[in-house]
Amino acid sequence: MYRATVFLRQLEPRTARTTAEVVKFALWPLAIMTVLHRVLVKAVNGARTDDFTPVYRAALAFLNHKPVYTANFNWVDPHYLYPPSGTLLMAPIAVIDPERSRWLFIGVNAIAVIVAGYLLLRMFDLTISSVAAPILLLGMFSSETVTNTLIFTNINGLVLLGEVAFLLLLLRRRDAWSGVAIGLTFAVKPILAPLLLLPLVTKQWKVFVTALGIPLILTAVAWPLSADPMDFVHRTLPYLMESRDYFNSAIVGNGAYYGLPDLLILALRAAFAVVVLVSLWLLYRYYREDRLFFITTATGVLLTASFLLGSLGQMYYSMMLFPLLMSVVLRNSVMRNWPAWLAVYGFMTFDSWLSGRFPASGRAAEYMKTTLGWSLLLLVICGVLVARYVTAKREGRLERGIDPVYPEPEPEKVSVEA
């Protein structure tokens, strides 16, 4: 009887005694239930957009040595766009039936996002028991980028895991393994290619051996196993180089959708390119020794720039910006201001702004929120860094860096009462 009582007391909910405990007790149930809802309900239900079916068909065709690159690019439905190396890695999903394969793919991507979140905590020297853990988990699975990755059933969760593993191993100077992590993502899609600038400027040359070697080896293996590998070069690659005016939040995509003059589109891209270059120069000049801040912030700048200024930027690409958002825990983070999080709302929110009462305004808000969010984020980062530079120059302390001068903590008062 006594042992049963002790066991039941262990199951009794504790009452929070500190603010941190209150936050954790409140957010852990919300985070866990949100994860379960996104995976078991939203993702399994699916939606009109289906990124999985073209991949499954391509994998099945590959296993049966049939043509893979047969998509009709005149249709706006999701197409199969992965190179032969990616097809090789995807092939196992076609071993079982489509429905169970899709469920498994959803589960694997959900687990990949959770593991990426854990690695992000470790990157910033935080643990599962910290307040940041439930906040991060809830934020990730409440976002459009994770939710639609699971609903559409694409591979972005695994790409995020590859990105975070790459950054963590890069920070810990495990260069060859860092290259393996990002090289596996290159074998499927080159979305993280701008991040190779990081080991270039930090002179971590071994990264390039595995980062480039892995996709080359996989391509060499996949090429003779494919029925139509040259069709990827002749048909798919030219399509990937084009800028489309639908499902495209890049400047060129929204500019084409709204009929902006080509010269204005070019001017906007050039202006934001200058913003990006200024940010990267200030980061390299004054922060490259502060490796955690430099790598996470530069990652955000490079990827946001590639989404906004490239030929194709889709909202759920924003998943790759989680390392930048997590940098808010750093004292000198560029994310510690409200305009930065207004920008995050633009490209992370799952809210739809389509309005039955105000259709034109609602449509414009819905289609432009991601573009405006990415744009504002780049402006905020550049603005923060330039303001720090100007302040440090005015105060004559550029040689010591451009971080703000933080006030010294007040000494604790010692009670003299008996």
UniProtKB/TrEMBL annotation:
Predominant place of localization: membrane
Record keyword Transmembrane present: yes
Molecular function per GO: hexosyltransferase activity
UniProtKB keywords: Cell membrane, Membrane, Transferase, Transmembrane, Transmembrane helix
Signal peptide coordinates: none
Membrane topology note: Multi-pass membrane protein
Subcellular localization, as worded in the UniProt entry: Cell membrane
Membership in a protein family: Belongs to the glycosyltransferase 87 family.
Protein name per its UniProtKB record: DUF2029 domain-containing protein
Organism for this UniProt entry: Rhodococcus spelaei
